[in-house]
Write a structure and sequence with these properties.
The structure holds 2 protein chains of 2 kinds. By secondary structure, chain A is of the alpha+beta class. Chain A has helices at about 15-35, 100-115; strands spanning about 75-85, 85-95. A two-stranded antiparallel ribbon of chain A has the order 1-2. Chain B contains 16 helices and 26 strands. In chain B, the strands form 7 sheets. In chain B, strands 18-19-17-20-21-16-22 form a 7-stranded parallel sheet, sandwiched between helices. The chains are: A alpha+beta, B alpha/beta. The complex binds zinc ion (3 copies). Chain B: InterPro entries: DNA2/NAM7-like, DNA2/NAM7-like_C, DNA2/NAM7_AAA_11, Helicase/UvrB_N, P-loop_NTPase, UPF1_1B_dom, UPF1_CH/ZBD.
Chain lengths: ~120, ~650
């Protein structure tokens, strides 16, 4: 109802409960990383990179708070490969140009060209 | 809700964020429901956002870690659509194991578990780059291309849930998965329970407020006492001693368990007893009297362990008094019921026979303000007497009790929160020639007291005509145990004698908690006087009151320390306010005892001016309080006072609610 501008961002409030969470999280990560799986139980990998026929990206749902940034496109389209049942699905998503995902891809492309 | 992060430049009050069921995908912590920013926990079917709020992990990660959940689904309206996060190869859905690898030369990524799928050797041949594997959860949030992180603005607009609340909400979900954050605010759930009020609609409301507070205090007390375990104890005949334990706060009559673990694999021995001697200035020893000396490993004298045996008795009696007030309309008179709950009421005068002589036999003559107190009290259904230190509270109380008993309207019940105060009053009342019985808790029967001869358990031993009981008692004392039929007979005889003694008494004295003793269960007391009532909590004060009270006299001094409540939360919610104090706030004016006999006038001037609006008068002159024999270098010769810093330890009464002055 009220017109007001909030500046700032949520602040981390340090407390015992948050420290508990942190240590639980670290423990969980360490445990899952130590896990060893009998490889025999896992299906042999057979997942080729799909040939992209440039799927049209799903329209992004911007939060109403953010003005649509229509000027120069500072994101890049990516595709996530998933499975539904046995069916392969390709889902488009956008990542900012300056993200590691994009940078890494560019680096790999450059390396490839250099060869 | 109120947003108050430190760099909010405009303070904004938002209406409370309501979690509406319209939003199937609402973050159960903060209320954010942007489909791009929330994730469904597959096992609990609850949604959480990928924002950190005030915590060091995003809400969804907070939930997964705390609830030990591992599988999630993206929202159908999110950029990636409804997607169960799982390994493309093996179907593993543990998000803590999952990551992704990119294609070598294409903008394609695939989700793979780190072990074993992302390490398989043939990935490279299929144009993937497994060296680029990265986890889906980084820095305690999901990757932002997978789940959007709500903007700062969105997060500030959401509910500012703290890690404390998150942790408690998760605890609550373990019992009730439907619980909401609002449930945390219910009494007994939230950090801050419902506070006491000045007025209550009815006794149910009263019980609903005080019941949870008493429970909190009980839980706190139990935790505190059960952690009191101490090592290195000696066993010595029927008593055990231990070096003064650091945190062990003990009272005479407390129950302790003493244990001995044999070095071999024998079953440990343990026995229970009552504390009969506590560490004092002279000795660090603690003695307990064991209930039975059967099987005591008396060959050992070292390495016993002493543990506290927590008893809920006093708290149970408070809860029961609260309930009685609510459900039993004969618990107190209608007048007292409404007065105690703070309802507007016409003043009422009781018919009474005002005595010709105000002072009671065997007690000192009363001064003017004491006489006026006695005469006022007798004609009123509810009186507060405020007695600053040294104003003769005990004598005044005993005189009142004397006249009440002489009204011929039944026995008078006299209580105080502490045993010491009860004993002092018992002694004064006994001097008036009234028949007094002092009821002690069974656990305190072995403890000496100046009025021990008035205690029920001692009066029984000296009772006329109870020959059979005496014989059995002698036998029991000698052998230590009776045959089961004799024991049965002994108990029934004892019960009858106790009843007879109690019924014939003019006055019965006990602690407030003691008024809940089963031996008083069927007794009704029209008149109840509670001394030191400002040091009792309301529920404690209620125990003697709900035995049919029609005339209540609360003696105390609300300018001195109130009841001690150990649990901070309960204290802050108002449990540490006495009934006396609340009645004063409600406008019931206490009768003041205004002449003090204890202090040198220069000492009384300070409390008189600061606490008693200058009303405290001196019953002693400076000359009477000057000790000529004492040659003490007071800073000012005519003002015999100085400040002394003391570091002594206070003691807490067995009910845990009042400090004792020793
Ligand atoms: Zn869950
Ligand atoms: Zn959230
Ligand atoms: Zn896998």
């Amino acid at each position: 109802d009220q017109m007001a501008v909030i500046k700032g961002a949520p602040k981390l409030i340090n407390c015992e409960e948050d420290d508990d969470f942190s240590s639980e999280y670290e423990k969980l990560m360490a445990e899952t990383y130590q896990r060893t799986v009998e490889t025999s139980k896992v299906p042999q990998l057979d997942i080729g990179v799909p040939v992209l026929h440039k799927p049209t990206p799903k329209k992004l749902t911007f939060s109403s708070m953010q003005p649509l940034q229509e000027e120069e496109k500072n994101t890049m389209n990516f595709t996530l490969m998933t499975k539904k049942g046995n069916k392969q699905q390709l889902k488009a998503f956008e990542v900012p140009i300056d993200s590691t995902l994009v940078t890494n891809l560019k680096n790999r492309e450059e390396a490839e060209q250099a060869e | 809700m109120c947003c108050s992060t430190s760099d909010v430049t405009v303070a904004v009050m938002y209406p409370c964020f309501k979690v509406s069921s319209d939003y199937g995908n609402t973050d159960q912590y903060c209320g954010i429901h942007d489909p791009a920013a929330v994730v469904l926990c597959n096992s609990t079917k609850k949604w959480f956002c990928n924002g950190r709020g005030n915590t060091s992990g995003s809400h969804i990660i907070n939930h997964l870690v705390r609830a030990k959940c591992k599988e999630v689904t993206l929202h159908k309206d999110s950029p990636l659509g409804e997607t169960v996060l799982e390994c493309y190869n093996c179907g593993n859905r543990n998000v803590f194991l999952l990551g992704f690898i990119p294609a070598k030369a294409d903008s394609v990524v695939v989700l793979l578990c780190r072990q074993p799928c992302a390490t398989q050797s043939n990935l490279k041949d299929m144009n993937w780059d497994p060296t680029q594997w990265q986890p889906l959860i980084q820095d305690r949030t999901f990757l932002r291309w997978l789940v959007k992180i709500p903007s700062d603005e969105e997060q500030l607009r959401g509910r500012q849930i703290s890690a404390v609340q998150i942790s408690r909400l998760e605890e609550l979900w373990k019992e009730n998965p439907e619980a909401t954050l609002e449930d945390l605010e219910k009494p007994g759930m939230d950090e801050e329970p419902a506070s006491v009020m000045l007025r209550y609609e009815d006794a149910y409301m009263y019980q609903n407020i005080f019941g949870p507070l008493v429970k909190m205090e009980a839980d706190y007390d139990r935790k505190l006492k059960e952690t009191q375990t101490t090592q290195r104890s000696r066993y010595d005949g029927m008593s055990a001693s231990t070096a003064r334990p650091e945190h062990l706060k003990l009272m005479h009559g407390d129950e302790l368990r003493i244990r001995y673990q044999f070095p071999d694999s024998r079953e440990p021995w343990s026995g229970v007893g009552h504390v009969i001697k506590i560490p004092d200035n002279y000795s660090d020893e603690l003695c307990i009297e064991l209930k039975s000396n059967a099987g005591v490993p008396s060959q050992h004298t070292q390495d016993f362990v002493v543990e506290f045996v927590w008893k809920s008795t006093s708290f149970d009696r408070m809860q029961s008094a609260l309930k009685t007030l609510a459900v039993d309309e004969t618990a107190v008179s209608t007048y007292l019921y409404h007065r105690m709950l703070g309802h507007e009421l016409e003043n009422m005068v009781l018919k009474c026979n005002l005595p010709k002589r105000n002072s009671a036999p065997g007690l000192p003559e009363l001064n003017h303000s004491q006489v006026s107190a006695v005469r006022n009290v007798l004609a009123r259904p509810l009186s507060l007497i405020q007695g600053p230190p040294g104003t003769g509270k005990t004598v005044t109380s005993a005189s009142i009790v004397y006249h009440l008993a002489k009204q011929g309207l039944g026995q008078v019940l006299v209580c105080a929160p502490s045993n010491i105060a009860v004993d002092q009053l018992t002694e004064k009342i006994h001097r008036t020639g009234l028949k007094v019985v002092r009821i002690c808790a069974k656990s305190r029967e072995a403890i000496d007291s100046p009025v021990g001869f008035l205690a029920l358990h001692n009066q029984i031993r000296n009772m006329d005509g109870a020959e059979e009981l005496k014989k059995l008692q002698a036998l029991k004392d000698e052998i230590g145990e009776l045959s089961s039929s004799d024991e049965k007979r002994y108990r029934s005889l004892k019960r009858n004698c106790e009843r007879e003694l109690l019924q014939n008494a003019d006055v019965i004295c006990c602690t407030c908690v003691g008024a809940g003793d089963p031996r008083l269960a069927r007794f009704r007391f029209r008149a109840v006087l509670i001394d030191e009532s400002t040091q009792a909590t309301e529920p404690e004060c209620l125990i003697p009151v709900v035995l049919g009270c029609k005339q209540l006299i609360l003696v105390g001094d609300h300018c001195q320390l109130g009841p001690v409540v150990m649990c901070k939360k309960a204290a802050n919610a108002g449990l540490s306010q006495s009934l006396f104090e609340r009645l004063v706030v409600l406008g019931i004016r206490p009768i003041r005892l205004q002449v003090q006999y204890r202090m040198h006038p220069s000492l009384s001037a300070f409390p008189s001016n600061i606490f008693y609006e200058g009303s405290l008068q001196n019953g002693v002159t400076a000359a009477e309080r000057t000790n000529l024999a004492l040659d003490f270098p007071f800073p000012q010769a005519d003002k015999p006072m100085f400040f002394y810093a003391t570091t002594g330890q206070e003691e807490i009464s067995s009910s845990g609610t009042s400090y004792l002055n020793r």
